[in-house]
Amino acid sequence: MNQVDVLEIAQGALWVVLMAAGPIMMAGLLIGLIIALFQALTTIQEMTLTFVPKILVIFVAIVVFLPFMMTTVIEFALTVFERIATG
């Protein structure tokens, strides 16, 4: 295994992290934006208002996207194990 292989694996690992965490981060971002817009329109400036909806939406997003996330991580792990075994 040379430096090019290590860099390819590192690049793949970063891509897998982005693919696995992306849906959860986008769900949190969207609900945060919606709540911030609601707070701006209604002049409700309660700081704790954002926490409960974000936690609920992120939990639901984890449940929904968990199969995709697990498939992505497992496929990457299998390709890394194959590269280790062959080379």
Describe the structure.
- There is one protein chain.
- By secondary structure, this protein is mainly alpha-helical.
- About 85% of the residues lie in helices and about 0% in strands.
- The radius of gyration is 19 Å and the shape is elongated.
Topology:
Blueprint (H helix, E strand, L loop, with lengths): L2 H40 L8 H36 L1
Helix pairs in contact: 1-2
List key phrases describing it.
single chain; 87 residues; mainly alpha; 2 helices; 87% helix; 0% strand; elongated
- Kindly state the percentage of residues in helix: over 70%
* Biggest beta sheet attributes: none
Q: What class do helices, strands and sheet pairing give?
A: mainly alpha
Helix count, DSSP H or I runs of 4 or more residues = 2
Quickly count the domains: 1
Rg, rounded, reads: 19 Å
Q: Outline the low-pLDDT stretches.
A: none
Instruction: Quote the beta fraction.
Output: under 5%
Q: Please provide the ordered H/E string of secondary-structure elements.
A: HH
Quick gist of this model?
The chain is 87% helix and 0% strand. It contains 2 helices and no strands.
